Amino acid sequence: MVPKINRRAFVIGTAAAGGMALGINLPFGRALAQAGPDQAFGENLSPNELGIWVAIRPDDTVAIRVVRAEMGQGSQTGLAQLIAEELEADWSKVVTEYPTPMENVRRKRAWGNYNATGSRAIRESHQYVREGGAAARMMLVQAAANEWKVPVSECSAANSVVTHNPSGRKLTYGKLAEAAAKLPVPEKPALKDPKDWKIAGKPLKRLDTPDKVVGKMMYAIDFTMPGMLNAAIKDCPVFGGKVKSFDASKVAGMKGVKKVVQVNDHAVAVVADTWWQAKTALDALPIEWDKGENAKVSSESIAKWLEEGLTADTKFVGNKAGDIQAALAGAAKKVEAVYSYPFQNHVCLEPMTATALYTPEKCEVWTSTQNGEAAYAALIAASGLPAEKCVIHRMMLGTGFGRRARSEYVTEAVQIAKQMPGVPIKMIKSREEDMTNGVYHPITQCKLTGALDKDNNLVGLHIRISGQSILANVRPEAMKDGMDPIVFQGLNPGGAEGQFGYDVPNLLFDYSMRNPHVPPWFWRGVNNNQNAIYLECFIDELAHAAGQDPLAFRRKMMGKHPKHLAVLNAVAEKVGWDKPAPAGIFRGICQHMGYGSYVAAAAEVSVKDNTIKMHRIVAATNPGHAVNPAQIERQISGSFVYGLSALFHGGITIKDGAVVETNFDTYGSIRMAEMPHVESVIVPTNDFWGGVGEPTIFVAAPAVLNAIFAATGKRYRSFPLKIHDLQIA
User: Fold this and answer.
1) What is the pTM of this model?
2) Which of 53, 419, 503, 716 has the highest CB neighbour count under 10 A?
3) Backbone phi, then psi, for 28, in 5-degree steps?
4) b/e string for 178-209 if b means 16 or more Cβ within 10 A?
5) Which strand (E) or helix (H) includes residue 382?
């Protein structure tokens, strides 16, 4: 029932004095902590544990433990559905609990991975959470059989009640829980066939919605406590720069100001009674920065450097088959195009924030995070205290998109609090600070060359990517012989993380790594976003060069990729591809695969002058198992908002080494009136487990871009589209 843990992600050793030495080596945080095996961590979990995933309260409440972060994607509800299904629980009595990261450490990582990125919440933990629910059900049934002194085979569970079938006697879970909790936890219990699901697989309402509707939901930015002060922080505007000097005396007398502190070697913070007082004083504080050589960098210089990588020698190959040089040399027709994709900002609705209370005896942090273990590790490292003296209180996330998998805001809050021991400090990054001193979707360029034979079949494809590596910046130990494999998402010869979906006999997909000073990070969908545009728009270019229908051109190359083809056919049928579009309406289509799931989209647009009207997008997805179909539909729509916002309004530019776009006036988002009508087609094959939150974003942009070409005959290969003076109706 306990998941296997990757040794590279978490290493446990032993130490003297009988303690447990926990070397936390997490993807996004590192620390070394000492924790005694019997020390309490201030937990508030329900009693009567039936294994680690379920606790039953005397009033029949079913407390289900969820360790993956909820940020609007619905995984809290989906994971609870999977456990409740195997538990045979009464769904109306289900609540969720969060075992804190320190409790996970104390129990030798019993709950496994807390990371809620990469659409992994359900696809990576479905097996062991379902086994947890099944084991708890077996314990309850055994407890009832013991009470009645009957064979367990004569008892059954349903709707949080155990029934003795021959006599009709019944006991509720609440009455059985105490006795059941004393029984051994069954190992590897049998799981239900999904065709028999009654809770999982159903479009149930989300568990967190009621509190959000009435304003009871507590986000990190809402948190307050007696005696709390507020901090605003300002980092060097140029990445890699440092604080040279500042004059705290200039703001010391301003209203509410308590203290001016330096944070690391590159930031300054002001602590005051209110956040606005802190922000106002920080804006007035004279700070001299040492911006360094990076102040000479611009978007233009970065673009030129990446362009050089399109023809440079490289040893990094992600996918190779046949002889691409021979195929290109013998082509009846050769097609070539260069695309580029910019830095993108996460722009979470809730800026990065954390409240820290530090004393030499204990350090607590209240924050929102996509990875509770990484935030915990950051807290331990920043505080300098052992694990048992550190506590992370996870709040609801005001969106994440990958940004809250990074924990530098926890580090900064603790570093500020350490300079005012005993005083709780809430640090909030301003919107401007959050946008100009964050981490960004990596920038890349791509040169694509295709070879068509005399019958207009695609016989060769060379894709050269030049640009930034995320892993080189954040996890160099995960590189493979110096190469970042994540760069090739959606272009891989196989595997769940993004398989190339076409049969082309001669392939070469390679990569020239060029890392500007702007820090990259995981942004919803990661490299699949631009790779889907590069590939699917170029496939469209090839289809038109071959004089063939874009759908038919794709279909004839997908014989070995039935799941790719199935979602493509699903959107084609739903949009009515085989029938003429309404007058003035033009269509584009695409497909892609990533994070274990297969996705496709077809868009309908009209264009007048430079104004684009997106009328409709049909999206198909095969996530394997559809745990909550209603939530999948919402994730599709939400991801399209995010993907289309990046396509039309996003894009980060660099001037004098610094980010230019500082707020929503220059980095916009799709408005409701601009959004097309989104229709979802869910086609689960129930033979694998894929993700939902990220895969669906890939196909929004290329579907629309291909439709724009159908309408105008123009190819747009650089983004966002606002740089081409295109408007949205």
Assistant:
1) 0.94
2) 53
3) -125, 25
4) ebbbeeebbeebeeeebeebebbbeebebbbe
5) helix 372-383
